[in-house]
Each structure stands twice: as structure tokens, then as C-alpha cells.
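User: Please predict the structure of the protein below. I'd like the answer in C-alpha cell form so I can feed it into my own downstream comparison script.

Assistant: Understood. Taking the following sequence of 306 residues as input:
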Amino acid sequence: MIGIGVNLAAGLDDPPPANLVEEIVARARAVASAGLRTVWLPQGYGADTLTLYAGVAREVPDVELGASVVVVQPRHPRVLAAQALTVQAASGGRLTLGLGVSHPGLLEVYGMPFTRPVAALTDHLDVLAPLLRGERVPGSSGPGSDPADTAVPGATPEVPLLLGALGPRMLRLAGERTTGTMTFLTGPRTISEHVRPLLDAAAAGRPSPRVVVGVPVSATAAPDRVRAAAAVDYADYARLPSYAGVLEREGLSSPGGLVVAGDEDTIAAGIARYADAGATDLLVSPLGDAAERARTVAVLGRIARS
């Protein structure tokens, strides 16, 4: 059965919460109460996902805490390792760390040009991955180089890593060096014909990779309204080359066509298409008004238990 998790940030500004931490904790509790075992949080320009997760971990037991994704260029890998291991200690080892490199026009806010993304992520993994395993970074010496220097008591010795990967070179890196990939606004055809074959080939001889697919979903009686709103909300994504390529492969003119919307049977059928395509997990962004988003989480819980 495909895993189903929920994006805790979906609809977060409708309306903005009085206290972000309390709202994220409340949403995580609602997801867990629905019987779903994974929550996801993206990393934007504002609140820090891993800091939020340290708080969620103490309030909501048993759910996987997925970061989707942390952009690596602005963070030194040793700093990111310290954050991740601290969340592992707080949560009893429930963090899954998604890593990405952003897109042209988005990374520059940090004063960094978007150049050589695969090399940037490879270099980051060269330092981050050993630290998360409690190992010495190859070639390091001097203060801070001993694994004991960066250990966090109570943290598990391994943090699962996923890459935000869609291009062939990034998928190869994900298959060779991490537990899998995560995508957003990617249809079943792209998963079955592009992502899964490239990832599996790169991971030959290793455990089967995880494929987490970000999908907008709405339990609604007005699916056309929800899709039209999504087409507007996600219009900027459609202008990015990687997402434009997905729409072309899927035969769609708008990201609204990737929304799974309707009654429970329609949503279950949409989820099944992703499972048949080779996805191991759905990262669901509930769409619609507050009532529709709450209903979506409840429907997802019933589907997960069926």
C-alpha cells in the first residue's frame, strides 16, 4: 500500500495563524488522529522547518517528520547535520531529511547564483552524509573532525535522505547516494516512464528507492473550482523548465490538471494511479477552503486504513 502523508503548510495563509508553532502542532495532531503516519513541511524563506519539527516531535508522537525540502546552498553541511541530529534526538529518530537546490531566480535571495546544482548537492552530501552516520568526513582533520565532536546524544546514527530530483543527473545522484527522491506536481506518466526507471537503474544493488510524490488533493463537491484555483496558485511553477517538462509529458496545459479532486472514490482512484506508476508515498497538499482541507485529511485517513 502506498504511504500517504500530509503537507502541514498547505493553506497556512488562509487565514494566517496567530501563532505558527501552535498551528503546525495542531495540524500534525490532526493528521495523526486521522490515522496517517507521515507529515511533511517545506522550507521557505521564513520559519525554519527543522526548528519547527523539534517542537512537533515533543508534542506529536509516532509520526514520521519529513522535510520537503531544505535547500542546501545557504547552509553549511555541518550546520545542517547538527540541526538534523538534534531533531532526531528530540523525535526518537523520526526525521526524514529532503534536500534540494532550488531553482534559478529563487536561490539568488541568499546572494548566491544558481550554478552547477548537481555538483553543489554532491559536495554537500560528501560532508553531510558521513556526519549523519556518525562517521569522520573523509579528508577532515583538526578541531571538529572527530565524529565524537559532532555527535548529539540521543540521536539515532542514521538520518534517511531524499533528494528533490527530477532531471536525469539528479535522479542518478539520488539513486546512488540516498534512499530516494521526492517530486512535486509530477504526474503518474512521468513517474512510471521517467523517474522510476532512472532511479532504479542508479540504485542497482541497493535497496529499492523511495519515490515521494507531491500531489494536490481535495475532497470537494466542486472539483473544477479547486482545479481552476490551483492553476492560478501554481502558475509560477509551470514557468520553471523542470515543471514545464512534466506538464508536456503528461499532456497537460496547466498544473490544475494534476490536482486529484472529487469524492472519496475519485481520490482513491487517483492515489492508485500513482501507486501503479511506482510511487511509494504521496505527499498530499490539501486544497480548497478550510472545511475541504479538513475533509481531505479525513478521507485520506480512511483510504490509508482500507
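That's the full C-alpha cell string. Strands lie at 3-7, 38-41, 64-71, 95-100, 161-164, 180-184, 210-219, 260-262, 281-286.
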